[in-house]
Amino acid sequence: MAEVRLVDVSIRDGNQCLWSATGLATPQIVQVAPLLERVGYHALDYISSTFMGVAVRTHQEDPWERIRRTRSAAPTTHLQFIGTGFRFISWEEASQDLMQLIYDRLVMAGISRFIVLDPMHDVAAMRRSAAMVRRAGAPEVMGALTFTLSPVHDDAFYAGIARTIGEDPNFDRAYIKDPTGMLDPERARTLIPAVKTALGGKPLELHSHCTIGLSQITYPRAPELGVDVLHVAPGPLANGSSLPDAQRVVANLRELGHTVDIDDRALGLVADYFCDLAAAEGLPVGTPQDYDAAFLRHQVAGGVLTTTRRQLREVGLEDRFAQVIEEVPRVRAELGYPIMVTPFPQMVCTQALYNVLGAERYENVPDEVIRYVLARFGRPTSPVDPEVQDKILSRPRARELEAEPPPPTVAQLRRRFPGAGDEELILRATMPGNQVDAMRAAGPARSHYNPKLRPVLGLLEELSRRPALFDLDVERSGMRLRLRRRGAEGDDAEEASAV
Questions:
Q1: Contact 365/371 with Cβ under 8 angstroms?
Q2: Domain that holds residue 472
Q3: Which of 236, 378, 443, 446 would bridge 120 by S-S if both were Cys, CB 3.0 to 4.6 A apart?
Q4: How confident is the model over 6-34, as pLDDT tens digits?
Q5: What is the pLDDT of residue 303?
Q6: What does the alpha-carbon distance between residue 23 and residue 14 come to, in Å, rounded to a whole number?
Q7: Is residue 86 in a domain?
Q8: Do the bridges between strand 494-498 and strand 471-476 make them parallel or antiparallel, or are there none, so unpaired?
Q9: Using the 8-state DSSP alphabet, how is residue 451 labeled?
Q10: What is the pTM assigned to this prediction?
Q11: Roughly how many angstroms between the first and final C-alpha of the chain, as a whole number?
């Protein structure tokens, strides 16, 4: 029997899957961080460049300050950053010296664990990124093996990448990242031992989503196959398209004789906190998913399917939806079997849509698909179909995109944004300036959040919009709240007292 450690995904991946990456602001994260620290997780799946952009764009909050405040609240648990080595926030390519500056600043802010993920499994690119992260001073670096189903992605393919990770001193460990939740127990019985053996003794982790209900039955068997760490989510941020429920995973592992050394009471309090937050903010709760055999064929997650159907409905062609979904596997094969995680499902589905609606296939090709074939997102895992490649690259737009200038260097960016510090420079280089301006104008994020106060705060906000109401007394369970508005002869501030 094994000793199993856990990684919590509530702040980043669970939030992204169930709350559109916008459900958590800085005060909500900082409030729960001490509880997450007490649970005894190996790490918190904390942030990505996309989440840093969301903090600025949606919440007008400084993501660098968010990291520092969380690190102060949870000083000993790893805070994890996941990213590729070629971009930050924007999907536009970033220069290598900018990426080095980004890694340097992330480590200085408090990120202590990095996941190096290349969307094409370009091993050389992964090794370059790992070396940059190590130069920045990161204590722990993990390589990602992103799982998918295709004729290319067999056990030998993943074992080959794991062998490189095992031999490279810049990698400390690896994980099987299953973003679409397609790893079933049968495939796990061959894949996990092959990867574990190739790692040469380095720890192996498993991160598998609940999209079609397979991860819940794969997780209990994973430790006996060689997995050392499982990634889980608490309470309302589990299940759905997120990851397995932490409390259920712990119970199942212990039932099978494994050891999970965590603080169960703290874990329960974390789940309670997110339940209260979901209720206060009107956020959805993850529920177990039904098995969908068709998903294994098209591998398109629910959000992208919904968007595609909506686009067809808007132009009166919803009856063509089934044809588009039938076209998806064909397009994916022709493009070299990209892994169906953002942005590749959007690219594949858009191209499938154009192929079905056009007079001929690849008559219309979006810019992002052209950039993909130009290897702007990395070298495709399998070669693009030669005929399709010729169709795409022979068009004038492909020549225009191929002639795009290289990404700006840090020196060029400093000339473009004079006076900006490193952290502000990184944001301005990768985001619209008006969004960064709005963040700076908003000032520091609030320092406290209590979801149980939400009804009272909502009441006070509503009362403030009713100037005719002068006095209010609320009594409940031994608590009395008195709100009294001063008359016109005094200043118009409000007085409140609680007993």
A1: no
A2: 466-498
A3: 378
A4: 999 999 999 999 998 899 999 999 999 99
A5: 64
A6: 10
A7: yes
A8: unpaired
A9: G
A10: 0.89
A11: 55
